[in-house]
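To whoever is on call:

I kicked off a structure prediction for a single chain this morning and the downstream step that reads the tokens threw a length-mismatch warning. I double-checked the sequence; it's 122 residues and nothing unusual in it as far as I can see. Pasting both halves so you can look.
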Amino acid sequence: MDRGTVGSANRGRLQVEVRSEGRSEVVTPVGELDHHTADLLRVPLERAVEAGRTRLVVDCSRLDFCDSTGLNVLLGARLKAEAGGGGVHLAGMQPVVARVFEITGAEAVFTVHASLDDALSS
């Protein structure tokens, strides 16, 4: 399995790490995803899809907060990935983040996994 680090970005409250692992592009947001930090996540997700990496795994295990802007970034990535024959898999959501997806009904449109390992092995 290849485990090449693609890069990372940081803007105060959010850091985003990106790496390729097998057939997946693993994107790990760390911190708070909101309207001030959303582009830090949007850009690597869009770049991955543009590069043909349409199986996106978002490791949410270190995401402390997600507002509607962050949710919209993930929904947009889902549409682009699915248009390319792939999808977005969410892994390891903390309860506070999972609650946002539950309240909005967004959990129904994503493939949600208990852990990153589960997401990568599916």
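Update from on-call: the warning came from a stale cache, not from the record. Cleared it. Sanity check on the structure: Strands lie at 3-11, 14-21, 24-33, 55-59, 63-66, 87-91, 111-113.
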